[in-house]
Amino acid sequence: MELPLFPLSSVLYPGLPIPLHIFEERYREMFGRVLAGERRFGVVAIARGREVGDLPEHHPVGCVAEVREVRRYPDGRLDVVAWGERRFRIEGIAEPAPYIVGDIALLPEQTGAGAERLAARVGWLFTRYLTTLLRFASEGSEQLEVPDDPVAASYLIAAGLQIELADKQRLLVAETAAERLRTEAGLLRRELALLEHLHIAGPATSAVAFTPN
Predict the structure, then answer these.
(1) pLDDT per residue over 30-83, tens digit each?
(2) Which long-range contacts (CB under 8 A, 24 or more apart) does 31-36 make?
(3) Which of the following CATH numbers is that of domain 2-107: 3.40.630.30, 3.30.300.30, 2.60.40.3250, 2.30.130.40?
(4) Which CATH class is domain 115-198?
(5) Fewer CB within 10 Å, N side or C side of the chain?
(6) In the prediction, which pLDDT does 133 show?
C-alpha cells in the first residue's frame, strides 16, 4: 500500500484528531493528490530536522490519517482537520520527492494480557494527572471520560500526556494496548511526582496542536 507521508514534530494516534495548516508548495501538491483520492495520508514523527525546509528524517512507524474537514484560502493554503485511523510501518520509499510517498504495512491492534485491568488503573492515574495539571495552570477542572476499551484508552492517554516527542513515539510503537498502558503508568507517576512535589510540568502536548506546515 502506497501513502503520501507528512513528517511532523508531533505524534498522531488512532482515534485522535490533528489540525494542520498547509502552506508549503510541496504539501499543497500532496494534499491535492490526497483530496482527489481516498483523503488519506500518513503522519510520521520527525526524528531529525524541521517541519519546514529540507525533508527531515522521520520515524518508521506512523499513523494513517483521514481528512475530515478542509478550509481553502484564495492563495492556495489549506486548513485541514484529519483523524488518526491505523498505525503503520514504512517498508520502503516509492517516491522521494517533492514529498515522500511510502510503501507501508498496516500494523495490527492487539489488546494484550491484562489490558482491561490496566486501563482502569491507568485511567485513574490519568484523571488525577489532568486534575493536577489544570490546578497547576490555575484552570478549572475538566471532566474527561477514559474509554472502557483498553486500546482506545491507551491512545487517549498517550495523546493527553505532556511528554517529550521520543516518549510519544515510544507509545505509538508499543505492540499491544497492555504494553502501552504499562508504559503510560510509569510516565504518569513520573509526571505526577514532578507536578505535585516540584511543581514542574512537562512539555506542552502536541498531539492535537495546530501544526504550521
Answers:
(1) 999 999 999 999 999 998 755 455 566 899 999 999 999 999 999 999 999 999
(2) 31/67, 31/78, 31/80, 33/4, 34/4, 34/67, 35/67, 35/70
(3) 2.30.130.40
(4) mainly alpha
(5) N
(6) 82
Residues of the chain with pLDDT under 50: 51, 204-213
Which of 45, 19, 65, 21 is closest to 169 using CA atoms?
A: 45
Residue found under cell 515510544: 170
Distance between terminal CA atoms of the chain?
25
- Range(s) for CATH 2.30.130.40 in the chain? 2-107
User: Cβ atoms within 10 A of the Cβ of 162, count?
Assistant: 17
